[in-house]
Design brief:
This protein is an alpha/beta fold. The chain has helices spanning 20-30, 49-52, 73-84, 103-108, 134-140, 142-149, 166-177, 209-212, 236-250, 305-313, and strands at residues 7-14, 36-41, 60-63, 92-96, 120-130, 153-157, 182-185, 224-230, 254-261, 268-275, 278-286, 294-300. The N and C termini lie far apart (57 Å). The structure holds guanosine-5'-triphosphate. It catalyses: GTP + H2O = GDP + phosphate + H(+).
Length: 317
């Protein structure tokens, strides 16, 4: 198969909560001309993002309980082999890596060897950087820096949440870390989903130097993901109070909270997100038929499972 016959692949990276699922959703909803297959990778044992992607379930494949760059890389290769047999059903493969994944080994799977590279070709690595948090993330988290350094395109997200004058300075900082990438901005009112595809960044053969010589990925062993599942409804006020308190006391240790809740008195699913100090939530649509289930994921350091469990139990109706 020549390169033009192979299915193009976007590897979407960016630290926890940078807006990856939001842009994947915006792209799938708006681009009716193309059919997407989506692989979503989550660090924790329970996946939230897959259920929040606006596609028919068949096209969204969730690979949870590890990062695509290491312990679920074999799953990625197997999944691509299965997708290759359904090639006629989609035009583009989007891979949303976990916020803690190194994009290099994922991208490499599509460049060399006799596995996924036989049926897929890498279009580009797109990295999202959260305008509110990126400076702190770069300072503290080596993987955030690495994700930026490896990108073909960098999208500074959530620019609606920072003062207008700050965007240029942030872009200049990012450009210093990766002068080869192209740079875009994205905000709630003007999302840059159309720029996730069509990079053609890997058309001219060979591995770019920044991937070939990149040191091996390193995960911070201190970062853990704790997942909780409940077949009962939550009290919204108690849950909001708990999340506010956790964010205040855990500070920078609590990197990410997300989930889908069954709320007492609400017929629709309620999805919520917390990224360090910021949290928000909204109803996102009907529950599928069958029993309802609330799913909550915390990612961070020094997380106290019994305390979280007790706090959540107090919010159940
Ligand atoms: N104000 C604003 N909020 C945004 C924007 N993009 C994403 N968000 C919010 O940021 C939160 C995290 O967004 P997600 O799309 O789930 O981020 P993610 O990168 O998929 O998160 P992980 O999978 O946990 O790494 C959600 O509450 C989004 O609604 C944006 O451009 N502006």
């Amino acid at each position: 198969m020549n390169d033009q016959q192979k299915c193009p692949v976007t590897v979407l990276t960016g630290f926890l909560g940078s807006g990856k699922t939001s842009l994947v959703n915006a792209l799938i909803r708006s681009d009716r001309a193309r059919r997407f297959a989506v692989i979503v990778n989550e660090f924790g044992a329970l996946g939230v993002d897959g259920g929040l992607i606006a596609s028919s379930q068949d096209d969204v494949i969730q690979l949870s309980n590890g990062c695509l760059c290491c312990n679920v890389r074999g799953d990625l290769i197997e999944t691509c082999a299965r997708l290759a047999t359904r090639r006629a059903e989609f035009d583009w493969l989007l891979i949303e890596t976990s916020g803690l994944a190194d994009p290099a080994p994922v991208a490499q799977s599509f460049l060399i060897g006799d596995g996924p590279a036989e049926a897929f070709r890498l279009d580009g690595i797109v990295c999202l950087a959260d305008a509110v948090h990126i400076r702190g993330q770069i300072a503290r988290e080596e993987i955030a820096l690495r994700q930026i350094a490896l990108a073909d395109r960098l999208i500074l997200t959530k620019t609606d949440l920072v003062p207008p004058g700050e965007t240029d300075g942030l872009l200049a900082d990012l450009r210093r870390l990766n002068p080869q990438a192209d740079f875009l901005t994205s905000s709630a009112d003007s999302p840059s989903h159309r720029h996730l595809t069509g990079l053609e960044a890997w058309q001219i053969g060979g591995l770019p130097a920044r991937i070939r010589y990149a040191p091996p990925p390193r995960h911070d062993a201190g970062i853990v993901s704790l997942s909780f599942r409940y077949a009962r409804a939550f009290d919204f006020t108690a849950f909001s109070r708990l999340i506010r308190r956790l964010m205040a006391v855990s500070g920078e240790d609590l990197l990410r909270i997300k989930g889908v809740l069954w709320l007492e008195g609400e017929d629709r699913k309620f999805a919520f997100h917390g990224v360090q100090g910021l949290a928000e939530g909204d109803v996102v649509g009907p529950w599928p038929k069958g029993p309802r289930e609330s799913l909550i994921v915390f990612i961070g350091r020094n997380l106290d499972r019994p305390a979280l469990e007790a706090g959540l139990a107090d919010c159940l109706v």
